[in-house]
Fold:
Amino acid sequence: MKQPKFLSLVLLFTLFITSLARADEGMWIPMLIGKNYDQMKKQGFKLTPEDLYSINKASIKDAIVSLGGGFCTGEVVSGKGLVFTNHHCGFESISANSTPQNNILDNGFYAKSYAEEKPVAGLYVEFLVSIADVTPQVMAALKGADDAERGEKLEKISNKLIEQATKGTKYRGAVSSFFKGNQYFLYLYNKFSDVRLVGAPPQSIGKFGGDTDNWEWPRHTGDFSIFRIYADKDGNPASYAAGNVPYTPKKFLPISLKGVKNGDFAMVYGYPGSTDRYLTSNGVRLAAEQTNPVIVKLRDIRLKAWKEEMNKSVDTRLRLSSEYNKVSNYWKYFIGQTEQLKNLNIYGQKQQEEADFTKWAANKPQYANLMSDYQNLYATYEPYAIHKTYINEGLLAPGFVDEALNNCFGQLALENSKRSTKEKAEIKDELKKVNDDYIKSYNLIADKKIFTQLMTSWYTDIPKDQHPAFIEDMVTRIAPGDPSLAFSKFADVLWQTSDLIDTTKLKEFLPHRSVDKLREDPLVPFVINLNPGAYKKSVFGTKLSDFDTQKEKLDRIYLQALLEKNEGKLMSPDANSTMRITYGNVQDYTAKNGKHFDIQTDMDGAMKKYKAGDDEFDLPKTWLDAYKQKNFGQYADHGTIPINFITNNDITGGNSGSPVINGEGELIGLAFDSNWEAMSGEIAFNKDYKRTICVDVRYVLWCMDILGHADNLISELEIHKN
Structure:
């Protein structure tokens, strides 16, 4: 296929001029949000574009933070660096600070002074400093590059641009791609690594409904936690130190107690992780029919093994709960995504879009065969797709595999004389974190069971002609014809002889770790063979890398064609963990079965779900007493406390904890979930069913104030009652 020329910058910007898309769909780049301004005003937005994004004055962007590199979003809500985010975003920090003697995960916690705030190892936040369009520079550097050269040249020009932009600063720079490599922006971030846990409700509030209610509406979940950013005495980022002080932000969000009603303007401002809205029908079919069911199956193995052990003691539950939480969230997500891809006929919709595209492209040689090229590419790849899924969700899933691989490669790097002292210090810190996390979550019974079942499932599901020799030989040697027995016996041997699995042996081994000692360990040959780079090369040859390279090329051409085809229309780029604004309204909906869902839930509804002693639907005695006494403070609405509400905002993973902001720029809630009827949203937005589930900020404040008696925290906030 002839390689088309890149779109001109003028055409790219033209695409942001005229809005023909629904305003509730799209994750928009803050720097360009002025192109959406007229539509936002029609829906109830009362501020200016400069109030949202500015590099010359404080704007709302300066109150938004990315947590831990983008896994969640938070918002600054006081002039002393107080940050709200979701409970499930803070879950790992909360559980890490919990013990059977001081179980803040179950009992809740609100610091009554700075001294009581708890340092959180490894957690950091980043503020966005600025965005700059660097498309001309990147495209000039990539001009004439073939597929093999493109990645290297892109890295080189990105590093050059970042170096120029960050020179003389302490900012972190990143060049991010949009529209599958048709546009590039340079982002600068300011990183704060001293972040402390300030408060969280009991998990019976923060996780009310558990897995049963997850990804469902109506919800009654107090999904919030509270952190504080610290800086040095001059307000600069600094590592944790007792002398650090609460950070004074450029901007923080005021909080509204006015509540919401159907049709109110609502905006979500945060860091959505990833979407794939331009995925072709080939990818939709593959996900729905093959890869998603495998992901669900393999995660189910881990969840069941952990749950059996978690039910045995409080200590085990606390140690395993964070990992369990992370895996279970997307276990149910992939169930829902598969169901809705089928229910909403996304495959058929994509096929129709592609048929229309092919008609448009018929007289354009550079695009005419694009859809048939996709079909041929997927036909070659599909026999290996399940195996590729098994690598991350199966072979590499047991905790000791990741821990052992990190120790092997980390120690090699430490013994490399070419590494600088700074690099070695960073490697040591990372290895310590990896080993500490592994030791904390290790459970002999669950881990052995998970390893045996995952490997047996892999052996059964993957075609024999794709089995690597080292695994096939193992099964033949230990228990021919009985892979389950073979892997069980192999696990027994590893646990008895390796210094890298059982945590007692591991703790004794780590101070004396060396490359030579690692080579002697019986686990090392196995995990080295599982190393993704080596494994893929030995099993697949270049099949997987060829697919990735060719798909990237086709995607880039397809998006270039769509930008050309839709010239003059407003198109939203896929989410890619960069800051975005999505705007819409508080809005009810009616499901396909005709059932109508209102915008709001409250404490009365939570009481109808309440089950004393239940893992998912219990509530604290303080909650029940306050409800019975109608102790609602200033947060009541029609004789009860509102808990959750829904909007039609377009969000995805990474948006968890994002502020939901009204037309006056006030915080009204925290986004934390999406609804079951639109679980296909990462691939296809559905305007009729897609809803964002938000915890009402009045419930957050009620929990802090009435239940937590956190008067010191409430006094920090700027609360607007009217």
